[in-house]
């Protein structure tokens, strides 16, 4: 693993020159538009990066973007990897470890998810303040790489509280309907049944999705502060559940994306403070 990380990071460095990233960004389904706000200096396609997974989803662009956003040097993943695509956990978290090797100090994560909390509606945003990982394995299972982090990393604050509070303030100041809550990570790719939605709400979930937890666990293992935000693209309320298509989910995500982008931009701008 370490050799792969080092080989991939070395290749990327050979392509980006003296570019020194401070911030890593993972863009979720339908949320690639943030890239338009980045003053791009370099782009690398996933298939051209050694050892890098390749996104199998037509709505994930599969590009690693290097540039400036809100005065900070950033790496943005336009397209992430999911367990349901057939990737193992080591492959899913590999880009996070590479970004850390390239020098990032903070990780920002976005996703599209389904609302479980009846006080939320589709189109709202939710800043993640904790998660429940129901994916079938943990990305840290196996021999621990001590150079990356400890065998038993603490997860008492997987999402940085100070960034959460600042995110809430940004949303409030801009009249954005933004909640905080617990994200439940499941495997997918099928959406949930009525009984599953009911169960996920009972165990404490406010939103459900098919990503994020593995990357956040890996980031915490390496000591990277994390801020994560969900665009709520559909409603998993058992008593009023309606069929939903991926096209509808992407459409809602794209409509709500400018609000998410505003929050991320302001948080990134204020990192030094």
TrEMBL record:
What name does the UniProt record give this protein?
A: Purine nucleoside phosphorylase
Give GO terms: molecular function aspect only: purine-nucleoside phosphorylase activity
- EC number, as in UniProt: 2.4.2.1
Q: Which family does it belong to?
A: Belongs to the PNP/MTAP phosphorylase family.
Keyword Metal-binding appears in the UniProt entry? no
**Which Gene Ontology terms describe the biological processes this protein takes part in?**
nucleoside metabolic process
Determine if Cell membrane is one of this entry's keywords: no
Q: State the pathway, as annotated in the record.
A: Purine metabolism; purine nucleoside salvage
Q: Which Gene3D superfamilies match?
A: Nucleoside phosphorylase domain
Residues forming the Nucleoside phosphorylase domain are: 23-269
Q: What is this enzyme's class at the first EC digit?
A: transferase
PANTHER family xrefs: METHYLTHIOADENOSINE/PURINE NUCLEOSIDE PHOSPHORYLASE (PTHR11904), PURINE NUCLEOSIDE PHOSPHORYLASE-RELATED (PTHR11904:SF9)
Q: Which GO terms describe its cellular component?
A: cytoplasm
Keyword set for this entry?
Glycosyltransferase, Transferase
- What is the documented function of this protein? The purine nucleoside phosphorylases catalyze the phosphorolytic breakdown of the N-glycosidic bond in the beta-(deoxy)ribonucleoside molecules, with the formation of the corresponding free purine bases and pentose-1-phosphate.
């Amino acid at each position: 693993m370490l050799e792969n990380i080092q080989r991939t990071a070395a290749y990327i460095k050979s392509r980006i020159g003296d570019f020194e990233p401070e911030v890593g960004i993972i863009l979720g389904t339908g949320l690639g538009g943030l890239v338009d706000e980045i003053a791009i200096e370099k782009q690398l396609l996933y298939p051209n990066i050694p050892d890098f997974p390749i996104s199998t989803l037509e709505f994930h662009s599969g590009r690693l973007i290097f540039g400036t956003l809100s005065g900070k040097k950033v790496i943005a993943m336009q397209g992430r990897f999911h367990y349901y695509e057939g990737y193992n956990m080591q492959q899913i978290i590999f880009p996070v470890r590479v970004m850390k090797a390239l020098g990032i100090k903070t990780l920002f994560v976005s996703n599209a998810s389904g609302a479980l909390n009846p006080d939320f509606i589709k189109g709202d945003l939710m800043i993640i303040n904790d998660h429940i990982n129901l994916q079938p394995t943990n990305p840290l299972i196996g021999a621990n790489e001590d150079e990356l982090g400890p065998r038993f990393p603490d997860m008492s604050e997987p999402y940085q509280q100070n960034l959460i509070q600042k995110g809430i303030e940004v949303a409030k100041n801009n009249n954005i309907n933004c909640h905080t809550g617990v994200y439940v990570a499941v495997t997918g790719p099928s959406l949930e049944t009525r009984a599953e939605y009911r169960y996920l709400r009972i165990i404490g979930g406010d939103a459900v999705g098919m990503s994020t937890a593995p990357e956040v666990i890996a980031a915490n293992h390496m000591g990277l502060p994390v801020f994560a935000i969900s665009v709520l693209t559909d409603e998993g309320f058992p008593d009023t559940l309606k069929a939903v298509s991926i096209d509808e989910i992407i459409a809602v995500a794209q409509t709500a994306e400018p609000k998410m982008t505003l929050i991320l931009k302001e948080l990134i701008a204020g990192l030094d403070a």
